[in-house]
Structure formats: structure tokens, C-alpha cells
Design goal:
By secondary structure, this protein is mainly α. The protein has one domain (16-133): Hemerythrin-like (Four Helix Bundle (Hemerythrin (Met), subunit A), Up-down Bundle). Helices cover 75% and strands 0% of the residues. The protein contains 4 helices and no strands. Helix 1 runs antiparallel to helix 2 and helix 2 (42-69) runs antiparallel to helix 3. The longest helix is centred in the middle third of the chain and has 28 residues, at 42-69. Bound molecules: fe (ii) ion.
Length: 134
Amino acid sequence: MAFLDWDQTIALNIDQIDVEHQKLIKLMNAIHDRNNESVNNKEQLADALRALIEYTKIHFSSEEKFMDSFLYPGIDMHKKIHKDLLAKLETISRDFAASDQSTVPESVFLFFKDWLIAHIKGIDTKYASYAKKA
Ligand SMILES: [Fe+2]
């Protein structure tokens, strides 16, 4: 079983964004799986974390472009939330690379999972319903 499965409860019913959320979950699950392998390669895990951050950036800018396309009034607040998460992820990634830990702490996955679900359900749904009315 995957660490997190995408399902209809977090669907926005906007194809491109749903596909991007699925990809984010897939990247996170892949790191989680690799983390639990008996032979860990810290460098590979650190690279995978970087890749997750890079894709998160791509996804956020895609969402921001989308919100911009229909002049979503909540865009500034939404951008700030994205920026804060990216700063946190950067810190997590730097701390892991500098630590003597060979695996990514489970708390990192739990944080990202909870953040993502809460963000999609609580914040992304707002621009999604606005977009449908726009
Ligand atoms: Fe978002």
C-alpha cells in the first residue's frame, strides 16, 4: 500500500491540477518507499527530496498561472502559503543533507501529507470553485 493514495476526496475536477497533485503524491510515495529499503543511499534520498521540491515549485507556479488567468482575488494569500511551504521544504532538505541520519524522518512525510491534504481541501478548493463560477 502506498503511503498516500490520491482519491476523489482531494479531486478538484480540474484535470491539469489533479494530474499535478497525483504526481506530487507519486514523488512523495517513491521517496517513502526508498526510505524503507534495507539498503539506503543517503545521497539518492537527498536527490529525491530535491526533485520533490523542484516539482512542487513547478506545480505551484502552474497553479498561480491558472489563478491569474481568471483574476482570482485570493491569489496573493495563496502565493504566500506556497512560498511558506517551499521555505519549510528547503529547510527540511538542508537539515537532512547536513544531518547524520541515513533516512528521512517519518515526521517529514507526515508533515507533507497533512499539509497537502489540508491545502487541497481547504485552500485549493476555493480557487477551484471560483474558477467554475468565473
Ligand atoms: Fe495551492
